[in-house]
Amino acid sequence: MSPTRTLRTGAELRRAFLDFFVRHSHTEVPSSPLVPHGDSTLMFTTAGMVQFKPYYSATGDVPYTRATSVQKCLRLTDLDNVGLTPRHDTFFEMLGNFSFGPRTKGAYFKEEAIAFAWEFMTEVLGLPKSRVYASIFEGEGKLPRDDEAAALWKKLGLPANHIVALGRKDNFWGPAGGAGACGPCSEIYFDLGEKRPDYLPKDVFWGEVPGDAGDRYMEFWNLVFPQFDAQLDGTLVPLPNPGIDTGMGIERLALILQGKNTIFETDLFAPLVETVLAKAKLTPANRQAATRDARIIADHARALAFAVSEGALPGNEGAGYVLRRLLRRAVTRGRSQQGLALHGTFLAEVAARAIDQFGGHYRELETHRDRIVRLLEQEETGFGQTYEAGWARLVSVLRENRGKKPPFAAPRSEGEAPNAPTVFVTGAQAFELHDTYGFPVELTSEMVSEQGGVVDVDGFEREMDQQRARARAASRFKGDAAGEKRPWTSLSTGPDSTFVGYDTTSLDGAKVVAWREAGDELELVLDRTPCYAESGGQVADTGEVTAGNARASLVHVHREHDRIVHRVRLIAGTREVLLKEGGAGHANVRVDTVARASTQRHHTATHLLHSALRSVLGEHVHQAGSLVAPDRLRFDYSHFESPSASQSATIEQRVNDWILANVDVSWAELPLAEAKAKGAMALFGEKYGERVRVVTVDGVSDAGIAPSLELCGGTHVRRTGDIGVFVLTEETTVASGVRRIEALCGPAARAHLMNAGETLAEVSQALQAPPGRLLETVQRLKDELASLRKAASQASKQGLEAEFAQLAGEATTAPGGRWLVAKLRSGGDTNAVRDAADKLRGALGRGAAVLALEADGKLTFLAAVTDDLVAEKKLRADDVVRAVAKVTGGSGGGKPHLALAGGRDLDKLDLALAEARRLLAEALS
Fold first, then answer.
1. Prediction pTM value
2. Whose C-alpha in 244, 396, 404, 491 is 20 to 30 A from the C-alpha of 419?
3. Rounded to whole angstroms, how far apart are CA atoms 370 and 313?
C-alpha cells in the first residue's frame, strides 16, 4: 500500500514538511503551548492556527506573512474511538502552513496554497496522483459554492471525478474556540485501496467515496481558506486580508507512507504499544482486547507526557480534569481482566519511551523527563490504591441492581421488553463512585457499558448540582441584618471610584457620591479613594473616614462592578453629618499605614516566592491562589509533590537574597500584548483588559536571579529591602497537584524567629542539653522511647495471647462450630489485638469470635471468622462487626476473616455484645 520509500519515518516527514515551506519563504515557528495561556476560548490547543489567530484579523503589521509549524494538539472529541479505529487519537502533531496579512507583503491565498500542497504531495512525498482526491465546499444558505478551489485543482491536473463537493459540516472550518478566523476548506484524501483490510470486521463499512463514514478514503490534509472573522454571536465579518490555514496530521500521513493499516502500527506509536504489550501475558483469547487497550494506553501516555512537560498537572477541574481522566482511563484499561490484566504501575515506563522517541524534536520532554516520570508514577500509584476498592464497589453495585427495574429511563435495545431487567448504576451510585473512589462518571459509564449496562448520567449530574449547591451555601457570606442589599442613594453625579492609593495613603476633600444602609453600618462610594479594595488575594485596607465632626472606622473595601465600596462603622458624630459633609466634598480618608506597609511587604514577597518556586521546582509551577494580609501570606501553587527540605531551604534563601540585594520594585500600565511580549506572568483563567498593570522586580545578576514581571493590580513596596526578612512557616497540600506555602515578612517574621529562639532555649533547658547538642539528645530519647514501647507492646501481646487462649477454652460449642463473645481485660493497641486474634482463629479450629476492647474512653470491636466458614459463606467478619458496632452508633469493616469497628456509646456495650451472641449462635446453630 506504500506509495513511496523516499520518506518514511515520522521524524523525516516532520523535517521534510518544514524544510519545504521554508524554501517557499515561510518562517518556521515553534509549536505553541499545548495548554494555551491567554486564550479563554480554549482549554487545549486544538489546531495549528491557534497561535496565529490574532494575525488573521490584524489591521496593522504582523511579524511575518508566511509561517509553517508542527503544532502539538489535543482533542477529546473522538476519545471513545481511540484504539477502535485506524486513525483516531487524542494527542497529535499537526503540520501546517499559514498566510495572513496583505499580498503586497508576501501573503497568498487559494491558488498558491493548493499549488504548494500539490507539489509537496506529488513531488516531495511521491504520492501517486491517481489515488489523490480533494473536496470543496458545496455552498450553504448565503455562503456560495467554492468553484474557485475546484478550478484550481483541475488546473493542476486533478480529474473532475476526483473532486467532490461537501457541505458546511465537512468543508467549512472553524472557528477554533467559537470565535475568530474561519472559512471554506478543501480536504485532501488518499485512497487506501478497494481491498478491505483483514483486521476490519465484516459488518464495518470500508468506504465508497471521499467524505463518507468509511476509512478507505483517508482524509489527511485540510486546506482552510480563512475569509471571515466569526463573532461570538455567530455573525461572519469579512477579514481585511483573507488568509491560509492548513493542517495535516502527521500520524495519518505516516500511515499512508509506511503502508500500515492503523496509525498505531506506524513508528509514531508502535514502540509505545509494544512497550505495553511486552508487560502482558498474551493469549489468543485476550490478544484482540489487549491490543486495543495497549493502543489506548500508548495514546494517553503520550498525551500526558507532552502536557506534563509544559507544567500542566492532573486535577479536579478544567484542563487538569481532562488529564486526570486520561490517566485514570489508561490505568483502567491496563488493569482490565478482559485484556492486559496488568499489575503494578506502567504509565511512567510508556511515557519514558515516548520521551525517548520525541525528545529530539520536542526538547521540553527531555528537559522535564524526571518530573514527567515521577508525576505519572505518583498519580498512577495513588489511583491504583483506590481502583481496586472502586472496582469492587462497582461490581457490588451491579450485583445489587441485577434483575431490578432501573429507576430511570434506561436506553434499551430494539425489540427489548419495556420492563426487561437491565444491569444499571443509578445517579447516586455513580456519584458515590466519583466522590469516594475518584471514578469520573465517564469512566464508570465506560466500565459499565463493557458489562452490558447503563449509567443514569442525568441522575449523576443532579447529585453533582446538589453538591455544588451545598458548597455554595457553605461558602456564601451571610447577608447583613437588612437582608438583601438596599438600593444606592445618590448624593451627586459624575465619575466615581478613582483609585489613588498607589501614590498616597491619605486623601482630603473626597466626595461621597452615593450611600446605602448595610445593617448597623453604611456603605459609601467616593469620587476618589486611597483605599485598596480586596482583590487578587490582597486584603482590603483598614483606616478611617471623617467628615465634619463625624468619624467612621473603615470595616471593609470591596468592588461592586466598577465601583469601590467602603463599608464603615460610625464611632463619633452622626450619620447625617457624615453624609452631609461628605456629600459636599469634605470627607477625609486615612488608610492604616502600618497595616498597608505590612500587606505590601507580604504582597511583593509573593512575587519573589513565585519566581523562586519556578526557579527551584520548575517552570511548571503556577500560582493557584493567594492571601496577602498584614500578618502573613499564603501562596497556593501547582506542583505534584512536597518540596524536599533542601529545596525549601533554597527557596527561602533565594527570596532573602533578593531582599538583601535591595533592588527596585516598579510598576507601569501597558497594553496587554506588550506586557505579554515582555514575558509578564499572567494568571491562567483570569480575564484582563486591553491595558494592564505590570509589576517588575529587578533581578540580582550576582545571585543568578532573573527579574520578576507579573500582571498585578495590588500595592507593593518600593524596594525589596523594605520587606525586611522572609520566613517559610508551613508547606502543605490542599488538593491533588496543588500545594500551599505559609510565610511571614517584616515584623511578623521577626516575632516568629524570636518566639522560635525562646522555644529552643526552653527545650534546651528542659532537656539539660546545650542548643548545639539538642538534636543528638532528642534522637537518644526517641530511641529509648521506642525501646520502651516495643517492650510494652510485647508484654501487651503476651497478655492478650494468654487471655485469648483462656477465652478459646471457654468457647461455646455449636453444631456449626465454636463461638465466643467477650470483653477483653488486657490492654493493647489494635495491631496487637489483631495479631493475637489471628492466633485465636487457629485455637477455635472452626468457629468465630467477637471481642470488645475499651481503652482510653474508646470502644473497639473485633470479629474473627475461620477460613472454612468464610468459604462456605456461613459468616463474614466484616458483616458481623459492622452490625455489632452499629448498636453503639459506630461503624467499621475489614476483611471477611478479620475485621475491626469503632463503637461510640459505651452505655450500649452490653446490648452490642448480646447482638454478637445472637448473630454467632444463629449462624452456627
1. 0.68
2. 396
3. 14
